[in-house]
Specification:
By secondary structure, the protein is of the alpha+beta class. The chain has helices spanning 37-51, 102-117, 140-143, and strands spanning 8-16, 27-34, 59-67, 76-85, 90-99, 124-132. It has a 3-stranded antiparallel beta sheet with strand order 2-1-3. Strands 5-4-6 form a 3-stranded antiparallel beta sheet, covered by helices on one side. A hairpin with a 4-residue loop joins strand 4 and strand 5.
Length: 176
């Protein structure tokens, strides 16, 4: 899989093809993060081959739906459980991100794993993604955003009202 662009969250439901032996096979639902529906279906078959004894040739996809965030304007803390294959072996990992939607948090996770661990998108498997409450977060880079009265001061700003288009004086950036 190539994690190009923003990833979306899909709910893919599939089953084994009905046969005389098993006329009503069970449905399998998966939560897949992929750039589009085609990749989502492909990842569904990839994971299902590992879990159950059937593949795309002996099964069918019942539905593929994109899942949208219920509150996309509220900043949330997300915990991501994943496993990935590195050059030395397979590793399990828990990571925390702060974002507006689950899909953008997982996209952030893929980018972060590529930067810090050189993990390719096809070698990362997202196991679980959950919203984590502020007091339950573990990582310091997420905890630092929970302080009461958190401010982002701008110490050096240019006052463009007093400057002419072609000015021969340096702009004053400190208004202390």
């Amino acid at each position: 899989m190539k994690a190009k662009g923003l990833l979306n969250e899909y709910k893919v439901i599939g089953r084994k093809l009905p046969s005389e032996k098993e006329p009503n096979p069970p449905l399998y639902r998966m939560r897949i993060f992929a750039p589009d529906t085609i990749v989502a279906k492909s990842r569904f078959w990839y994971f299902l081959r590992q879990l159950r004894k059937f593949k795309k040739a002996t099964g069918e996809i019942v539905s593929v739906e994109q899942v949208y965030e219920k509150t996309p304007l509220k900043v949330k803390n997300f915990g991501v459980w994943l496993r990935y294959d590195s050059r030395s072996g397979t590793h399990n990992m828990y990571r925390e991100y702060r974002d507006l939607t689950v899909a953008s948090a997982v996209t952030q996770c893929y980018r972060d794993m590529a930067a810090r661990h050189r993990a390719r998108a096809h070698s990362i498997q997202i196991i679980r993604v959950e919203v984590v409450e502020d007091d339950k977060t573990r990582r310091p880079h997420v905890k630092q955003m929970h302080e009461v009265g958190l401010r982002f001061p701008m110490p050096h700003r240019v006052n463009t009202l007093k400057l002419k288009k072609l000015s021969y004086t340096k702009p004053k950036t400190f208004f202390g």
